[in-house]
Amino acid sequence: MALFGLSVFFLLCLSAWAAPGNGTEEAGGLFRRFLARYGRRYSLGSLELQRRERFFQESIQRHVYLNSPVLSHENNSAIYGINQFSDLSPEEFKAIYLQSKAVKLPEYVKTSTKEAVLPARFDWRDKKFVTPVRNQLSCGGCWAFSIVGGIESAYAIKGNLLEELSVQQVIDCSYEDHGCNGGSTISALHWLNKTRVKLARASEYKFKAQTGICHYFPSSDFGVSIRDYKAYNFSGAEEQMMMQLINLGPLAVTVDAVSWQDYLGGIIQHHCSSGEANHAVLITGFDTTGDIPYWIVQNSWGTTWGIDGYVYIKIGENVCGIADTVSAALV
């Protein structure tokens, strides 16, 4: 059951809505349940309420299409349905949450002819080297969340305590990026590497969900800086990418996440391409034990989204462009 992040209740409601013979009363009831579940407060009878209900009903139509047997017939295929984004238009969703910029990277070239043996399953969470899922709220700072998550893990892998570091510091201070209005994992890593800035603890430089004034802590006893980073295009070389994840730690990647607005669980095998990278996330592991091998990917939209804040992406076909922009911090 853990495979599907939201309750079965919403899937049943979706089925009832999609079935023939159900009318506006059922649709209105489903919208009211959504408002209660996610704490939405729109004035009764307002134009805004009508607008949100229209977007909600349009999302139901998308779910029917995305879950159609013709498109989603494979084992463990992704399931789409009602979540916290169901009252947003696709344009609003993109403008708020899909604010990462893609960077063209060199293709990865193997340096050894010896074939390494990969484990069937590997996840840095099993070793307690991954911090909990965060929530970027309405800040388009996914690029900062993904690289900070990677730095936290890299720092712990080297034998240190697993610390939650400040995403807000990167949002405020990475001068090559645009704070909550978007940025790039690669330019942020370049800034960290060039300046050797020490990241403070998240408790000392708290997340505010908006771009603020950059603060430094030169006299602080604690701080994590990076000594370098690696960044490659692994398109067509996802096996080597798996080995890099084992050797270096969790990988920050930039993906096409347009269809993720409606994701509930399962393995994404369709409905996104590498045509337009727009969102940054963190790969913590992989699993090849089942019929469909998949990446285990931490998102920054809170634990109510997806599979407790995670999404599974099929390995081997560069689904969602997951192998195009891959980076890892070295601490």
UniProtKB/TrEMBL annotation:
Family annotation (Pfam families): Inhibitor_I29, Peptidase_C1
Gene Ontology, cellular component aspect: lysosome
Reactions the enzyme catalyzes: The recombinant human enzyme hydrolyzes synthetic endopeptidase substrates including Z-Phe-Arg-NHMec and Z-Arg-Arg-NHMec
InterPro entries for this protein: Papain-like_cys_pep_sf, Pept_asp_AS, Pept_his_AS, Peptidase_C1A, Peptidase_C1A_C, Peptidase_C1A_papain-like, Prot_inhib_I29
Keywords for the protein's UniProt record, in alphabetical order: Disulfide bond, Glycoprotein, Hydrolase, Lysosome, Protease, Signal, Thiol protease, Zymogen
Domain annotation Cathepsin propeptide inhibitor: ranges: 31-93
Predominant cellular place of this UniProt entry's protein: other
Isomerase is among the record's keywords: no
Entry's localization field: Lysosome
Coiled coil: none
A GO BP entry: proteolysis
SMART domains, sorted: Inhibitor_I29, Pept_C1
Top-rank taxon, per record: Eukaryota
CDD domains to which the protein is assigned, alphabetical: Peptidase_C1A
Signal sequence residues: 1-18
GO MF entries: cysteine-type peptidase activity
EC number annotated for this UniProt entry: 3.4.22.42
Domain Peptidase C1A papain C-terminal residues, every copy: 118-330
Entry function: Proteolytic enzyme possibly involved in normal cellular protein degradation and turnover.
PANTHER family reported in the protein's UniProt record: CYSTEINE PROTEASE FAMILY C1-RELATED (PTHR12411)
Family: Belongs to the peptidase C1 family.
Protein's name according to its UniProt entry: Cathepsin O
Lineage: Eukaryota, Metazoa, Chordata, Craniata, Vertebrata
Annotated gene: CTSO
